[in-house]
Amino acid sequence: MPIFSILRLKGLFEIAQLIANYWKFILLIISIYFLFFKIDSIVSLINILCFLIIGCTAIIILNTIKQFKFCYTSSINKKTILKSFLFFFISITSFSIITFGDRFIIEQKNGLEAVGIYFFLSNFLIAPYGILQNYIGFKQLVKYKEGIELNTLFKNVYLSLLLGVILGSFLLMIIFFIEEFNILTFKFFKYKYEMFLLIILGITRLYSAVISPAFEVSTNLKMLKYFNIILIISTILIITTLIFLNSVSINIVLLSLIFLWFIRTFAQHLLILKNKAFYNE
User: Fold this and answer.
1) pTM listed for this prediction
2) Cα separation, 64 vs 67, whole angstroms
3) What is the pLDDT of residues 121-162, one digit of tens each?
């Protein structure tokens, strides 16, 4: 991941993505080999995959050290490093809860069948937004590194929201086509409200994809502290409420997720606007 970040900041996007995802190609090749020769040992598969990943990582590290010269222009004291670690750790933990906690709550309140329905719908509708979210964040971080005009930031937000609406409309057209020709036995429009909320969630995540990279490159310890306070309070309140409610439908979970994603992103947006050192007026 450090090598991936270095290449990303250098603008070598294709190589950075290859470094981050090459193991998937290795896994594909190993899986085909195991399938062809009818090998059913999961332990062997994991051992071979780990061995190849470790070997490839060593080669990548040596090549990066040889190719790039690293110069540290300023020193950071240990206290600042520890504070940064703590604040980022809290932020990432909260983000992980927001991203993955939904399925545990749905399973606890509604059972495995509801989780299966939710998992299928979210993969169908959220996965395309997730790909776009990762791509936008991946590219925008480098562009924001040198600062940005506020007009450009607002323009990017507008474009991301517009793209989200267009993508949502396209996905609904695909679903209508699937339903009309009975391509799948799954009845999508039985869950029309869930689908609508998933699209809103996807649009909110695209908004986050524009704002989060700007926050990452402009943040300082003071900003992170305020951001974590907002994030922790909102996350604890929402999660606690969902846990103690007797009945929690998929729609309520989705509304909660939309609220948390929006609060997270809007808080970052406000903190960016207050950090005048970041943008060019």
Assistant:
1) 0.80
2) 5
3) 998 999 899 888 888 887 777 777 766 777 888 899 999 999
